[in-house]
Amino acid sequence: MNNHEMDTHNEEALASRTPEPGEGHERTTAEVAEPRPANVVSIRKIEANRANARQSTGPRTDAGKRASRMNAVRHGLLAQAVPITKGDYKEDPRKFAQLLEGLHDEFTPVGMAEDLEVQTIARCYWRKMRAARCEHGAIRKRSGGVREDEEREREKQLHYAREFGADLEQSADGIQYLRDKLEGAKQEVLSGTLAGECYNWLKERNPNGFPQPDATQVVQEGARRVLTADYRDQIVATIDEQLDRLALRHAMVVESEALNLESTIWAAALPDTREVDKLIRYETSNDRQLDRALQRLEAMQAQRRKQGDAPAEK
């Protein structure tokens, strides 16, 4: 047994080894996050196998290549069932046919056995793309509704703050509500009269800075107060001060909320732990099958080159 055969035998034995008691199947976060050294080895093997396959004594003539390419049609025992074409999740069988044709051109299989190995290789690469789509879908599922959820949460917080008298300046929506209400009160003051409810609200908003009128500045007419020009100007000045302060506060809170939303979206840019574990198991199993198919194809083609008795082209 040469060195390459010994390495292949050892790797297959290791891959099929039954875990010892206590080993389990759990992986640490570091194992999940860091690429496995075996993957690097597998990539080198794949490139080496491809290089060997290109040295195959497969079909040389145009007619022979066309006949070899049609093996996917004649012997498509595996390929027929690979693309998913029914149900909500559908795959394009033409793309799989293009993948299979490209691999046939690259590996130039001769005979049904080699052709079936190429089909297995194509299926493994197709599964890799399917796993990538699965990961993409899992991330979209986690992150797709973040903005809508955040908007609903802000509406709930604003309703709570208004209903129970919480601090409205803790959210951008709450601050905007105050600004709109102050602008409305300002227009009412500028009209020269002020409803008692609005008057009391303005005093509550600015208990220390709200101007206190004397008997000549306000005349009570039912539920409304008639304001003199000088007193009206004093109230407008206090409202403008609050509007300026709230404008600065609003800009700061909007920026903070935008950063928090962005962080929430970025935090959803990975599937959850169960999805990650499932994808790792799926891709690990698929990579092992791909490596073995490449090794079998390489061995078949090496044996054929050695014997020099490739099947005649049809």
Task: Tell me the strand percentage band.
Answer: under 5%
Assembly of the depicted chains = single chain
Number of strands: 3
The string of secondary-structure elements, in order, is HHHHHHHHHEHEEHH
Q: Helical element count? A: 12
Principal-axes geometry comes out as rod-shaped
Helix-strand blueprint:
Layout (H helix, E strand, L loop, with lengths): L2 H13 L13 H5 L3 H18 L7 H8 L1 H4 L18 H15 L3 H33 L2 H19 L7 H19 L2 E3 H10 L12 E4 L2 E4 L1 H39 L5 H35 L7
Antiparallel strand pairs: 1-3, 2-3
What does this structure look like?
By secondary structure, this protein is mainly α. It has 2 domains: 33-144 and 270-307, no CATH class; 146-267, no CATH class. Helix content is 69%, strand content 4%. It has 12 helices and 3 strands, in the order αααααααααβαββαα. It has helices at residues 3-15, 29-33, 37-54, 62-69, 71-74, 93-107, 111-143, 146-164, 172-190, 196-205, 229-267, 273-307; strands at residues 193-195, 218-221, 224-227. It has a 3-stranded antiparallel sheet. Helix 6 (93-107) packs across helix 7 (111-143) and helix 7 (111-143) packs antiparallel against helix 12. The chain is rod-shaped.
What's the quick description here?
The chain has 314 residues and is mainly alpha-helical. It has helices spanning 3-15, 29-33, 37-54, 62-69, 71-74, 93-107, 111-143, 146-164, 172-190, 196-205, 229-267, 273-307; strands spanning 193-195, 218-221, 224-227. It folds into 2 domains: 33-144 and 270-307, no CATH class; 146-267, no CATH class.
